[in-house]
Amino acid sequence: MSNPHFSGVRHIIFDLGGVLLNLNYLATEAAFIALGATEIKQHFSQLEQSDFFNLWEKGALTKQQFFDGIRAFANIEASDTEIAHAWNAMLLDFPLRRLQLLQQLQLHFDLFLLSNTNEIHLEAFNQILKETVGVPSLAHFFDKVYYSHQMGMRKPDAEIFLKVLNDNGLTPEKTLFLDDNPHNIAAANRLGIKTLLVTNSFGMEQIFRQKTG
């Protein structure tokens, strides 16, 4: 327990994309540009996105409304399948070492997943997971999983963090939150939750090296 970030920690909340699942936002940008949506970057990026995508992540849009909305604001005639393929292009892989780390951490901590996501991505990353380790969902690795589109709320709004804390009787100062978005980290910090910002050079493998080695 030499790392001060883990002092007194009993519960860990993980983000998904950029923490457990490798992402490449530029791949989705390139895929949409190939469909003719040349201004997609103005609407969606790793750190910021338009209200349309916020509503999508809150489950306020149906899948068909999402497809139709993309066609409308991007002024393209792509099919639903082409849009879904472009949207999923950012989803890469689950490094096996990260999943193994989760299994090791399950022995010592309560683990939770809290992801801003949507129904198209959920289906796609569950398929990636199944192909990687043969399990159908991330629930295998966590005490409970929370997906924004199923909750009607999203990070960095305080209500989504409070929902996870209250549902499970978690004390903020005994809870560690890992995310690759500084806005989400700041929001958790304001609630008294311990946090670590995940980066390309400071990922799960580096964070938990001493904890599980």
Protein described:
By secondary structure, the protein is α/β, with parallel strands linked by helices. The protein folds into 2 domains: 4-22 and 95-212, Rossmann fold; 25-88, Putative phosphatase, domain 2 (DNA polymerase, domain 1, Orthogonal Bundle). It is 45% helix and 11% strand. The protein is built from 11 helices and 5 strands. Strand 2 (110-115), helix 6 and strand 3 (144-147) form a beta-alpha-beta unit. Helix 1 (25-34) runs antiparallel to helix 4 (80-88).
What are the main properties of this structure?
2 domains, 213 residues, alpha/beta, single chain, globular
List the helices and strands and how they pair.
Layout: E1 11-14, H1 25-34, H2 51-57, H3 63-74, H4 80-88, H5 96-105, E2 110-115, H6 119-133, E3 144-147, H7 148-151, H8 158-168, E4 175-179, H9 182-190, E5 194-197, H10 204-207, H11 209-212
Helix pairs in contact: 1-4
Q: Would you kindly provide a brief summary of this structure?
A:
With 213 residues, the protein is an alpha/beta fold. The protein folds into two domains: 4-22 and 95-212, Rossmann fold (3-Layer(aba) Sandwich); 25-88, Putative phosphatase, domain 2 (DNA polymerase, domain 1, Orthogonal Bundle), CATH 1.10.150. 45% of the residues lie in helices and 11% in strands.
